[in-house]
């Protein structure tokens, strides 16, 4: 009976016999029957109740999936079995939403939850279809299910090029939802940043011409607008502000792109400006000079000041990078005195171990610019003359570009510095000599005397201790080979203090010459022997029979 009824419905569906309603989708007319449609669709029931049908004709101008999808919907309403797969599930789900067919919405959601885990690659077809349908797809459960599948693939590092291509084409609101989902799911930060960076890079390529014109020619005081660039600013804010707080953009975003994004953020006053500023400050020393010189001077100054204020950049590397930047701009004759002044002042004078490079750059700048002596001297206030070197002063004095008054004052400062350095060296040598004498004076008390091991006694009298160079060594004997192993505590010297002595024994009538190493850490004399390969080895350990005084001169070190 059911087969017969199903067959009859199929015949009515296919033939349109006794049709009492015409549904027009695009250029296709469907001659159907009201009852199956009203039975399944709240949309058609509402049309009937409100009397909105004109002569039993309904036109659906923007139907999800078009006539092909509506044909499947009609079959479904007539009770016919339809194939729900990855290529049509999105259209059917959106059509069910459009026509308010609850049962079909439930069936398509169930199908999606089965398709995605079994066929991960199907997310390409599903998301592509969703992008084509737009907002109506966003009103369904399609996107959360797809994003869950993508996040699982991200965890497994199985995002293929096809999937990535589709993700980069998502509307910004959808992409942000994916980023938030990945972040909340605990996806590794670098993976999220790489994906976000590629998305923004795709947008930059799309708006490349507009961005270039905007940054090079826009007159901000005239209030000119550039919709595409402003859209990019909104995209940057939407994505970057949702990234994890531990995000380090400089690790995964190309330097050139990072600089471009920062310039856009500054001009548009984007909320993500501070985030980009930190990223570019972190990466400043890795940015190629040819990219850095294309940035506005004010941006470079902001980057340097941010790095200095937050101790982000090594002073040495910062000075090296900025000196290279200044050299390049000076050679290009593309920097004014005001810009030179602003960039140099952004770095504290104390950061620079030497100021020779600043003086030499200023010299080149002066030689290519007509400038008064007064202005030269004002600019040279940036130079710490105390940190100049004699050779640099000799070179600039020969070229007659730097004012002679500056050279004279600098020479005096250098002389003063050298005199102070010489005085400091003398003081350190005197202090060192005093310490050495204290150590040497204690050596004879330390070493001389009797040392014992079992019934063997050593009578030690060192040679002239005042002329000894001392290197103390903690000697460890390896259990297996007894080869010599030393942990050194060096004190001004290059020769280990060794003593030679003649040992006497109650069991021996003769004497023998031996070498011993003094180990102050364990208060022992160690007999040094030789292996058959002539390698030094540790022999017996002799203990001092009686200490007459403390040998260790350092009060802050405990043995």
From TrEMBL:
Matching entries from InterPro entries are given as:
BTB/POZ_dom, NPH3/RPT2-like, NPH3_dom, SKP1/BTB/POZ_sf
Would you say which domain of life the source belongs to? Eukaryota
Q: Which residues form a coiled coil?
A: none
Q: Which residues cross the membrane?
A: none
What the entry lists under PANTHER family is as follows: OS12G0117600 PROTEIN
Full protein name: Root phototropism 2
Q: Which organism is it from?
A: Paramuricea clavata (Red gorgonian)
Lineage summary? Eukaryota, Metazoa, Cnidaria, Anthozoa, Octocorallia
């Amino acid at each position: 009976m059911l087969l017969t009824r199903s067959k009859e419905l199929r015949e009515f569906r296919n033939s349109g016999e006794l049709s009492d309603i015409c549904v027009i989708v695009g250029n296709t007319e469907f001659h159907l029957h009201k009852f199956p449609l009203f039975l399944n669709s709240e949309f058609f029931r509402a049309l009937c109740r409100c009397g909105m049908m004109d002569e039993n004709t309904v036109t659906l101008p923007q139907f999800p999936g078009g006539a092909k999808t509506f044909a499947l919907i009609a079959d479904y309403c007539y009770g016919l079995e339809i194939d729900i797969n990855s290529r049509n599930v999105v259209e059917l789900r959106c059509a069910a939403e459009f026509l308010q067919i609850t049962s079909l919405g439930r069936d398509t959601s169930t199908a999606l939850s089965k398709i995605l885990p079994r066929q991960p690659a199907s997310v390409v077809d599903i998301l592509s279809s969703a992008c084509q349908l737009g907002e109506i797809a966003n009103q369904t459960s399609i996107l959360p299910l797809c994003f869950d599948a993508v996040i699982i693939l991200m965890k497994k590092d199985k995002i293929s090029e096809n999937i990535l291509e589709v993700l980069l084409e998502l509307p910004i609101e959808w992409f942000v939802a994916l980023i938030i989902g990945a972040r909340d799911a605990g996806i590794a930060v670098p993976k999220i940043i790489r994906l976000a960076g590629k998305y923004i890079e795709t947008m930059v390529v799309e708006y490349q011409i507009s961005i270039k014109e905007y940054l090079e020619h826009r007159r901000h005081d005239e209030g000119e607008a550039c919709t595409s660039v402003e859209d990019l600013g909104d995209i940057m804010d939407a994505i970057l502000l949702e990234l994890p707080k531990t995000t380090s953009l400089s690790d995964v975003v190309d330097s050139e792109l990072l600089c471009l994004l920062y310039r856009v953020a500054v001009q548009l006053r984007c909320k993500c400006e501070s985030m980009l500023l930190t990223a570019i400050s972190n990466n400043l020393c890795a940015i190629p000079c040819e990219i850095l010189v294309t940035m506005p001077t004010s941006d470079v100054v902001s980057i340097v000041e941010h790095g200095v204020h937050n101790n982000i950049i090594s002073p040495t590397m910062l000075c090296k990078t900025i000196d290279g930047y200044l050299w390049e701009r000076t050679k290009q004759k593309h920097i004014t005195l005001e810009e030179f002044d602003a960039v140099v002042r952004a770095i504290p004078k104390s950061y620079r171990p030497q100021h020779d490079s600043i003086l030499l750059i200023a010299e080149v700048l002066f030689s290519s610019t007509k400038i008064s002596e007064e202005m030269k001297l004002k600019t040279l206030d940036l130079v710490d003359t105390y940190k100049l070197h004699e050779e640099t002063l000799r070179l600039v004095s020969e070229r007659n570009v730097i004012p002679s008054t500056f050279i004279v004052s600098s020479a005096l400062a250098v002389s003063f510095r050298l005199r102070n350095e010489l005085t400091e060296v003398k003081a350190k040598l005197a202090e060192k000599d005093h310490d050495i004498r204290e150590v040497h004076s204690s050596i004879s008390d330390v070493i001389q005397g009797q040392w014992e091991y079992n019934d063997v006694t050593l009578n030690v009298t060192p040679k002239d201790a005042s002329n000894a160079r001392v290197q103390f060594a903690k000697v460890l004997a390896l259990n297996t080979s007894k080869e010599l192993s030393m942990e050194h505590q060096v004190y001004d010297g290059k020769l280990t203090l060794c003593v030679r002595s003649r040992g006497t024994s109650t069991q021996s009538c003769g004497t023998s010459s031996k070498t011993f190493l003094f180990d102050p850490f364990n208060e022992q004399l160690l007999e040094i022997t030789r292996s058959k390969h002539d390698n030094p080895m540790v022999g017996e350990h002799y203990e001092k029979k009686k200490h007459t005084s403390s040998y260790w001169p350092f009060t802050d070190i405990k043995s």
